[in-house]
Amino acid sequence: MTPPDSFDDEQPEPHDLLGIGIGPFNLSLAALADQVDGLDALFCEAKEEFRWHPGMLVDGARMQVPFLADLVSLVDPTNPWSFLNYLRDQERLFPFYFAERFQLPRREYDHYCRWAAERLVSCRFGAAVTALHWDASRETFRAEVTGLGEVRARNVVLGVGTEPVLPEAFAALRGHPAVWHSAEYLPRRASLAGARDITVVGSGQSGAEVFLDLLRTRGADGTRLRWLTRTRALAPMEYSKLGLEHFTPDYTRYFHGLPGAVRDRLVEAQWQLHKAASAETLAEIHDHLYERTIGRPLGADPVEIIPGTAVVEALAGPCGGFELSCRHTDSGARHVVRTDAVVLATGYRAVRPATLDPIAELIDWDEQGRFRVDLDHRVAARFSGGLYVQNAELHTHGVGTPDLGLGAHRAATVLNAVTGRAVHQLPARAAWTSFGAPGPAAVTLPRPQEGHRAAAATR
Question: Could you tell me the pTM of the whole model?
Fold first, then answer.
């Protein structure tokens, strides 16, 4: 660390680490950094309080990862910011023990994160970082922060999250009060009260949860409910034990070493690893449909589930509502869906925050305008300070990037890089699977004479 007397008396000592944005990933970093003696860290968030996907905290919705994928446990289970310590503080250890559920309710995960965020002294809410500059003379970042003024730091970690994706086909309806993203589902659910035909677009977990909630809340009033998806099948999230090894540091290292074009193809092909719905949620939808159709033919139920169908254009209807021009993926057949309201469960994407505009020319962007990120999650750039990203490196680190199960490991990796030492001893290997091709030393071929004798012995 730079000694204090290297700056003039009026310039405060810069922070070792500045976190921009406080979502689960930067909160994980804050929790791990809190236990490092001598490390000066500050985390700033524009919002007034921590909230994790508040629009999708639907009753009954559960996490898709086990509770051990909390802020710290997969790196340091003794850390006081663990979920188990939260339960102890809340006097809920025995109820959790008797519940015998590995996956938490989403509402509880949100409450756990807020519990940590409100107690970590390094976290500041209502403090938006509006601009980030690089001061070459002092070799520090200079951040403009609402309410705090100028903040200097040697290292910066971007954890600004992702934004909802609104498909281009719906561009003409952008901002319409009856067409909105699932991120707004709970606060806007009441606005669907007058709709007699509701369409959900998107086959991921959010789409499944919205469709299930509508079945529960609107299934008895005659409203037609429709679920449209581009994917050819409502296939469940890959959740086999060996399949889950794609969410280990081992796979991240393998993926990072592949050529960029190969990585891009893999991310698209691996949708079932990170974009599908859980088998449990799909089973609940099926169970609900089974129960409600007892004594009635299936066709009499005003419910449609239509996979393999892309919406190519969406327009306001001439007599109210909307007309969705659709194309069937396999046959190419076209048809029009008329509906009163649309919920777009069409995912999220990383964005380049305007905060970086002052230093954008110093960052080494790839050919698609994305960060070039090394294995330690540091962005390639023409300055000596460390700029790191969390959940903006899907293209370089693979499907585990948005997964909470790798959050603590990534935060520890960044922390080790920032401090220049192994603050946390991370495992050399975490998967049974070897993802890369075996090297020459791993292949044993028989000598010619041994092969000849072996062949002769089988005659």
Answer: 0.91
